[in-house]
């Protein structure tokens, strides 16, 4: 039997927010993978351990969930206005596919610390103690992200007392601002409406807010789907009929948003759009066992990622929530009680999260200058990943 030696590729395994992924410097990738294409996709699939019919990713770095099947490529930015270019790949678990159609908001919080620690930021800007602002170009969606990275004794501070629901241990707070998160002028609502009636053949017509801010997202009222908004993962993910229903609604929403030309194309675009359901605030017990009280939150939100209910909330979907909450009349805004809002605290399966955004109606178009939230990030392991040399 012939054998092929493994190759080593420098890499860093990082947690960012409630996600984790493998981070690469573009210059460290094999030459064939330094450009977009089949070689890059195959390399990342092998690193993460996909496709895996067992859906465990045992033979790779992935964790067999949408939150842990991720890869990031960082390069020195060619733009003088930015420090780094950040490219995100959502790696499918059971199929040979890498989705480059959107950003990961959670891992965005790890990009700034990675950039500082790996020499992408001018040392003259890094204080001995304080905060350094890292300007990030998000290459998937062509947007600017500003990360405020804490520094202690000239190095990235990773430990601290900032607690984030969905993450077990406290860490240092990293403030992240997503600048102009809407996809182009006037396109924050692709249909032009804050609420649409979405026809779903074989199901029913649903009221929906379809917004493109942070990441394309479809919001539905929980009650219209037969839910309360307090559901945890097992209620949805253990129900094959429910998951199929959500995917059908998502596909028809994607078509209505102009993201695909035929509903069949949604199967090859798992990362976007997201689908979420909202409800007014209510008491519930989070997956941690901690009580979430209705008076401490403004609304309930549950979101699906890669076909499964997320254990907390995707960072990019949190941007969409912030933007939609700030615009009067959206389903998110109405679930939060309506009126003009600059921030909301929403309940998710793991607890709660506060997000902020300010909306302005300019020449008949809604504009979001920025959406802000706090996350945390930490290096889990650094060194090199190994894959068979014939993997790409």
Automatic annotation (TrEMBL):
Q: Which UniProt keywords apply?
A: Isomerase
Q: Listed GO molecular functions?
A: isomerase activity
GO terms, biological process: propionate catabolic process, 2-methylcitrate cycle
Family in the record: Belongs to the PrpF family.
Protein name in UniProt: 2-methylaconitate cis-trans isomerase
């Amino acid at each position: 039997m012939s054998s092929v030696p493994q190759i080593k590729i420098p890499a860093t395994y990082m947690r960012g927010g409630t996600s984790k992924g493998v981070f690469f410097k573009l210059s460290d990738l094999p030459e064939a993978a330094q450009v977009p294409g089949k070689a890059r996709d195959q390399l990342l699939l092998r690193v993460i351990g996909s496709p895996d019919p067992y859906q465990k990713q045992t033979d790779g770095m992935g964790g067999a969930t949408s939150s842990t099947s991720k890869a990031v490529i960082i390069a020195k930015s060619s733009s003088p206005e930015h420090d780094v270019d950040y490219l995100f790949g959502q790696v499918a678990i059971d199929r040979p596919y890498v989705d480059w159609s959107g950003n990961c908001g959670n891992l965005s919080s790890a990009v700034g610390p990675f950039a500082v620690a790996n020499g992408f930021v001018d040392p003259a800007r890094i204080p001995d103690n304080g905060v350094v602002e890292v300007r990030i170009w998000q290459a998937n969606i062509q947007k600017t992200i500003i990360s405020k990275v804490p520094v202690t004794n000239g190095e990235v501070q990773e430990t601290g007392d900032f607690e984030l629901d969905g993450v077990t241990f406290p860490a240092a707070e990293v403030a992240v601002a997503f600048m102009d998160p809407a996809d182009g002028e006037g396109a924050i609502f692709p249909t032009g409406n804050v609420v649409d009636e979405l026809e779903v053949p074989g199901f029913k017509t649903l009221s929906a807010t379809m917004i493109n801010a942070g990441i394309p997202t479809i919001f539905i009222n929980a009650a219209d789907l037969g839910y309360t908004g307090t559901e945890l993962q097992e209620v949805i993910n253990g129900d094959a009929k429910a998951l199929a229903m959500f995917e059908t609604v998502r596909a028809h929403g994607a078509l209505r948003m102009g993201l695909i030309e035929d509903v069949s194309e949604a199967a090859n675009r798992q990362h976007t759009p997201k689908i979420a359901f909202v409800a007014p605030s209510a008491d519930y017990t989070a997956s941690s066992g901690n009580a979430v009280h209705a008076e401490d939150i403004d609304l309930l939100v549950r979101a699906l990622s890669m076909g499964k209910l997320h254990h907390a909330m995707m960072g990019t979907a949190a941007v969409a929530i912030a933007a939609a909450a700030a615009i009067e009349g959206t389903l998110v805004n109405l679930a939060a009680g309506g009126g003009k809002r600059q921030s909301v605290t929403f309940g998710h399966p793991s607890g709660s999260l506060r997000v902020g955004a300010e909306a302005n109606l300019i020449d008949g178009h809604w504009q979001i200058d920025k959406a802000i939230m706090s996350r945390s990030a930490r290096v889990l392991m650094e060194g090199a990943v190994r894959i068979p040399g014939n993997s790409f």
